[in-house]
């Protein structure tokens, strides 16, 4: 009888361990927020999406209002096409804009949506044309270095 009790506890421990590993795998893959609720999709084109991934958050005023559904490349305009799956509870004007932002200095990237002033709202299949690409840290550092180098040349005259 004592042996069966130990077997049950070992089985529960192994099951708990397996569930923990599944949870960690989903978290690492940014898949823990998958939802099967109804959404509406809109798209935006960006020159540079940086480290943006599928299932990244779409936020407005700090509130998650959707997720990045798909990322594709347009070989005619050489831009990234990003599909956003938004919660239908949140409506945004047609003249809203999109920005790729970063959580913290080196954190995960997400899309910020800024509401416009149009009276008509976005609907399934709409495209937002006002977009701002990701700020790439290397580009910012290079810009700073070149501006300091140019100041050094001008200051020496």
Describe the structure concisely for a colleague.
The protein has 157 residues and is α/β, with parallel strands linked by helices. The chain is built from 2 helices and 8 strands, in the order H-E-E-E-E-E-E-E-E-H.
Give an account of the 3D structure.
By secondary structure, the chain is an alpha/beta fold. The protein folds into two domains: 1-32; 40-143, no CATH class. Helices cover 29% and strands 30% of the residues. It has helices at 2-28, 137-155, and strands at 40-46, 57-60, 63-74, 79-86, 97-102, 109-114, 127-128, 131-132. The radius of gyration is 23 Å and the shape is flat. It starts with a helix and ends with a helix.
Query: How much β-strand is present in the residues?
Result: 25-35%
Q: What about the largest sheet? A: 8 strands, mixed
Shape label: flat
Helix content: 25-40%
Along the chain, the helix and strand elements come as HEEEEEEEEH
Number of strands: 8
Oligomeric state, counting identical vs distinct chains: single chain
- How many helices? The count is 2
Query: What does the radius of gyration come to?
Result: 23 Å
């Amino acid at each position: 009888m004592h042996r069966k009790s130990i077997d049950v506890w070992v089985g529960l421990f192994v099951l708990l361990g397996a569930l923990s590993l599944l949870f960690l795998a989903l978290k690492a893959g940014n898949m823990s927020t998958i939802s099967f609720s109804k959404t509406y999709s809109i798209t935006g084109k960006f020159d540079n999406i940086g480290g943006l991934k599928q299932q990244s958050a779409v936020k407005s005023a700090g509130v998650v209002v959707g997720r990045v559904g798909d990322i594709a490349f347009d070989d005619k305009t050489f831009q990234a096409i990003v599909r956003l799956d938004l919660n239908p509870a949140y409506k945004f004007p047609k003249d809203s804009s999109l920005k790729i932002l970063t959580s913290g200095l080196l954190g995960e990237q997400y899309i910020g949506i800024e509401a416009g002033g149009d009276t008509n709202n976005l609907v399934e299949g709409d495209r937002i044309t006002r977009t701002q690409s990701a700020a790439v840290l290397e580009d910012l550092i290079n810009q700073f270095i070149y501006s300091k180098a140019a100041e050094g040349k001008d200051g020496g005259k």
